[in-house]
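Reposting from the mailing list since nobody answered there.

I have sequence plus structure tokens for a pair of proteins and want to know whether others read the tokens the same way I do. The first protein:
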Amino acid sequence: MVSRTLALALFSASISHAAETVLGVYMFHRHGDRTAKQTPPANLTDLGYTEVYHSGQYYRSRYVASDASLKISGLNSDIVLQSQIAVSAPSDTVLQNSAQGFLQGLYPAVGAQLGNETLANGSSVQAPLNGYQLIPIALTPSGGGSEDSSWLQSASGCYNSITSSNNYFTSADYQSLFKSTSGFYDSLTPVINRTFNASQINYKNAYTIFDLINVAEIHNSSIHAFDNILTNDTLFQIRTLADHHEFNLAYNVSEPARAIAGATVAAQAVQYLNNTITANNNFSGPRLGIQFGAYNSFQSFFGLANLTAASEDFYGVPDYASVMIWELFTNTTLPSSGLPPQDDLYVRFLFNNGTSATTTVPQVYPLFGGNAVDLKWTDFVTGMNKFAVGTTQQWCQTCGNITGTCAQFASTPSSSSSSSHSSGNSNGISTAVGGVIGAMVTLAVILGAEALLLLLFGLRVRKKIELP
């Protein structure tokens, strides 16, 4: 439950929007509804397509349209200007198709009036598909095929992260839950024994068991034959156990490498917003960054940014089509050119859990375990730098990888920031001069580090597990 102090802060933030100017936005978006991971290949469903399309429509009304409620300053409203937007996703059909569906809602077809041009000979050409707008989706180099894999962590390619996640399976928490829930999972056998054998029906497969049942609850009416087994309490228990399982695979306070996916997302958000600042005199500069990725990136960022202090909901896996958002804004009048001084630049973090973007709005949450929801740019950078991993060398040293791209760093002594990373202290991007991250940040290896075991649905979990 959100505290009274936080509720007042959220209220204050909501009434101040009228005086704000949004300068740039970075978003991390989960895919829409899909088929079950345990019955590959996973595909985006019509429902999932609809979810991400509606999400795109909502964020158009929030940031893009000429009458948007929080119009991003200088962003083209109708015809997309490619240099103002950056979209990426792993090489994965569910995630790429989700990104494409989202963009159709964000920048819809412009119609015959705008979707045409006159040639030198006086003839005119109308764009196909009623002016359908083509927006490139960059492929991130890792995370490919993640939605077809039940063990997603391997998609990160980060050795230490995979090892750290595996450590959960030898922990006291895991061993205790594995034993205490054995009877509970055995009771599900009639429901899932056509997909899982007896040795797989246990807490180790908490997520894929939930995922299979959840997909059936949405798409397969025959699941109601098991209503006597799948009561509301049982369904909640399946989900809660899966949430707990996945959070522990995604984050551990004493093992920073486990949360590499969230650490790289943090670096990307800072880098993109910094590029918005440094290119402020260029109308065609970056304004809106969007990345589609897997849920473990959400969960590991939730842990790293201590969002669990704001709400216990952050211990769970986000629903399909959930979005994390970082808004860069100012409360001062924009000068005739450029941006206001950095002391007048702020960032807030928002999260929208699930598919109801057309009926609910993203909620503001304080980062880093504090109460402030509007952070000065320099404070935001400082907080993110404590865990962000934003260069190839940092990624290689954090992950312990020594081959391929990382070979050049294998014999390089760790820098102070990289050394402190392994000890759990301040790490990630080096301190920005004047609050600015240099444009030299390299994410070639890690832009798509969104992985961590299995995939889920739902952000409703309690710190304390209710066991049968």
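The second protein, same order (residues first, tokens after):
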Amino acid sequence: MTASGQSDLRKARSAPPLGLAPEALERLMPMHLVVGADGTIEQAGRTMTRLRAGLAGQNLFEAFDLRRPAGACSVSDLVAGEGRLRLGFREFPRTAFKATAVPLPEGGGALVNLSFGISIVDAVRQYDLSAGDFAETDLAIEMLYLVEAKHAVMSDSERLTAQIYGAQQAAEEKAATDALTGLRNRRAFDSALQALVAGGRPFAVFQMDLDHFKAVNDTHGHAAGDDVLLRVAAILSGQIRTGDIAARLGGDEFCLLLPGTVDPGRLSALGETLIARIEEPIMAGGVTCHVSASIGVAVSRGTDADPASLLSRADAALYASKHAGRGRCTFAEEEG
């Protein structure tokens, strides 16, 4: 731009449009542009300058992509009709605006007042705008407050929902867990058994009682007995796979559910391992305790429709182990 042109531009900027003082224009329209007859942006409001530094001195049609009115290429095109505009920055970020253009009394230029329209929320976040960047009467302020309020309410709601869900999950977990050992309880075991039977999958049930456990309680007290139960629970948990279920049904009675495992060799090896581990001396309450385990095993090939019958067969096999001398694993006869 020539020195003469720069002087003319300074003069144009020094003459406030519509006779308004610059402070008044900034307060009323912080997103305004004063455009000369040749399309040069002679003045930009403080918010527009914040969005894109150096707008003053650029050509409006080079800085912005005019989308409405279509084909607009002159200032007279901008103010034609109702002067409603749709435009956006040509360079990234290509923020979109809606605007109104009105002709200035002298010089053939235009005063263009812009707003973000429905993209205001994204613009506020992108440019970190605040209430001070908008006119005091701009409904955008109220919209921002509503958005902030909604965001706060949604955040509180999501947090409360997460807390409720977490509390519900914790309550359900507690309701399904044996308080002493952390294994599944009878309620959870019965539910899992019902699901396996209904699903028609083959599986095995281990029914197990501790041998000589009453003597531990009678001789060393219930605290020592609890330590023994905790040790047995740890042994069971350490021997089963992911997807298997170990449960304490009460007292010294334990059960295992082993989905997909029906091979007699594998089941027998597991039973022998459990008995051998449980027969190892257990330190409980400062004393050494000795217990063993009797196990009854019942196998479902996926056709058993009665969980009670399956448990009854496992229980009968358990008592067969006890009658045969304890510390052993006995298989129930499969139903024909």
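Reply #1 (J.P.):
I read it the same way you do. The CA atoms of residues 105 and 203 lie 91 Å apart.
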